[in-house]
């Protein structure tokens, strides 16, 4: 089975509390944040590797990111993918989900053909959850996202369980498919030393706008139907009154607060 | 009478004959926009797809809606992105609304981006604020980096302008007097058999037991700092005493201490706005904080005086959460007994 995994390098979500907006310029300050594989994409990659173990074939990583993200793709190769395709061009900067999906879909076509495209369901930074469906549409593949379980038979028929509020939906469809994977699906494997060594010899292809044959007006900020405006940092600060004393004293104060808000008679 | 232009469409969601509450929440925002935005001319329409859902069309018409587009067909019994987006695409291309709003549910998060890709237009995800500016453009406020940052998004050059809204972001509006017109659309011209590549074979939904988190006046939230499943039991006792509900952070969920994912609060979980929120052993990461910011009184117990949660609290307790919860239980039970004794 030929499988593409959409892998997005993102700033480490454990460090988002350090992100600030420069009050003078209104620009995002996120210096020193480590870049990691988008957490859910590891679950997508794990699923792809398991399918490869079951059916044979290859797993290719595809992403759009600055060229400096090569190291993040190496991590994906160290987990067990065969090769990586990194779409990197100044013209791609500032892309919204649709402009991103155009690049990713073009790369999937060029690197393919693939039977299956797996992605995370949501990225940690932008977090639109749009890309799996939009890549699916642009490829002309059927697609499902928020996938929490799936099986693909040797006849190419897939049974896919997607998460809904307080439950799930079970769908059937034929390959080729795009599936957006949630973290509930599996536990991603650890990267082994052997894997890291093997990854050094695996190919990482870097593709530009011209390589993909895309129109400059359809990618990046210029090709994005949505345009960003002002940035804010939500102001959540409250009065922060400190309640001191022994636990029983604090408990008495809290009961007083519960009474005054009417939640306790 | 000139036909009323329908500027904003809300694509509502029904599952097995029941409306998703987020659909009504979004309708409230649509009605607010047409009433308050002077640069926007036109009314609100809802689009309802399903099989034998005429009663839902009736119900929907009572929320400040001018028109209900109702498409009824056995093939639309369950949501499926290819059949639903086929119908919606044809309707939108025919009627050309300015604005299209969705609930960001599991299904909505497939349907909205699918349609945006087909229409080559812009979609803003998980809006926490919607407004119309003086030029008549929709201003969509969206969170990034787990809610640490909010940004405005516009869709200047293409139509419709599309936005999705997570359940619980806005409150449910009141029903109104008067009702909109219900227009039953001919499904056979909107849905083609060739649209359908996927089939839904089963849908399973069950309301979790107990008081839903988002309806509770008191939310007792626990984090990784609660330390064990046994200590978690104290939170459940406290919630029971206060007739509230227990919420959790992701690490507490991952530890297996909680009642399940439906109790997680934050960007990937629920938004709550109780009268009182009490956080116990929660650091206060942006991912969690984004889900509680509209709460009445926020109290946090954390043994670290510098925990970020303290910065967004009305009351801060720097102490062991287990000890404070135990003392609270004792105090509440004592005062209840006193009352009974009197
Ligand atoms: C894409 C993504 C989405 C996410 N979505 C969500 C979400 O929706 N909701 C969510 O909650 N998280 C979410 N997270 C996780 C989030 O980033 C934080 O990791 C999480 O909120 C932290 O949970 P916590 O406060 O329980 O744990 P920790 O950050 O580990 O904090 C534990 C706190 O307990 C305190 N403590 C320890 N012992 C005690 C004690 N005995 N008494 C009192 N205090 C004590 C510590 O001082 C510490 O502040 C998400 C993460 C990612 C990557
Ligand atoms: N720039 C990108 N490169 C590779 N994959 C991406 C990119 N953006 C989004 N994706 C994929 O799409 C998923 C959902 O992303 P998003 O729509 O941004 O929330 C991610 O988990 C990735 O698998």
Summarize the SSE layout with pairings.
The complex is a heterodimer of chains A (265) and B (342).
Chain A: E1 2-6, E2 9-11, E3 20-21, E4 28-29, E5 35-37, H1 39-55, E6 58-64, H2 70-79, E7 83-87, H3 97-111, E8 116-120, H4 131-139, E9 142-152, E10 157-164, E11 167-174, E12 177-181, H5 193-200, E13 204-207, H6 209-212, E14 227-232, E15 241-242, H7 247-260
Helix pairs in contact in A: 2-5, 3-4
Chain B: E1 6-11, E2 14-15, E3 18-19, H1 21-36, E4 43-50, H2 54-60, E5 67-72, H3 81-95, E6 99-103, H4 108-119, E7 123-124, E8 129-132, E9 138-144, E10 149-154, E11 161-165, E12 181-185, H5 187-190, E13 199-205, E14 218-222, H6 229-241, E15 245-248, H7 250-255, E16 276-280, H8 286-289, E17 297-301, H9 308-311, E18 315-317, H10 321-341
Structure report:
- The complex is a heterodimer of chains A (265) and B (342).
- Chain A has 265 residues and is α/β, with parallel strands linked by helices.
- Chain A has a single domain, classed as 3-Layer(aba) Sandwich (Rossmann fold), CATH 3.40.50.
- Chain A has helices at 39-55, 70-79, 97-111, 131-139, 193-200, 209-212, 247-260; strands spanning 2-6, 9-11, 20-21, 28-29, 35-37, 58-64, 83-87, 116-120, 142-152, 157-164, 167-174, 177-181, 204-207, 227-232, 241-242.
- Chain A is globular, with a radius of gyration of 22 Å.
- The N and C termini of chain A lie far apart (64 Å).
- In chain B, strands 7-11-6-1-4-5-12 form a 7-stranded parallel beta sheet, with helices on both faces. In chain B, strands 15-14-16-17-18 form a 5-stranded parallel beta sheet.
- The model of chain B has no long low-confidence stretch (mean pLDDT 94).
- At the A-B interface, helix 3, helix 4, strand 9, strand 10 and strand 11 of A face helix 4, strand 7, strand 9, strand 10 and strand 13 of B.
- Strand 15 (241-242) of chain A pairs parallel with strand 18 of chain B, so a sheet runs across the interface.
- The structure holds flavin-adenine dinucleotide and adenosine monophosphate.
- Flavin-adenine dinucleotide sits between chains B (146, 223-225, 227, 249-252, 264-269, 281-283, 285, 287-288, 301-304, 307, 320-322) and A (13, 39, 124).
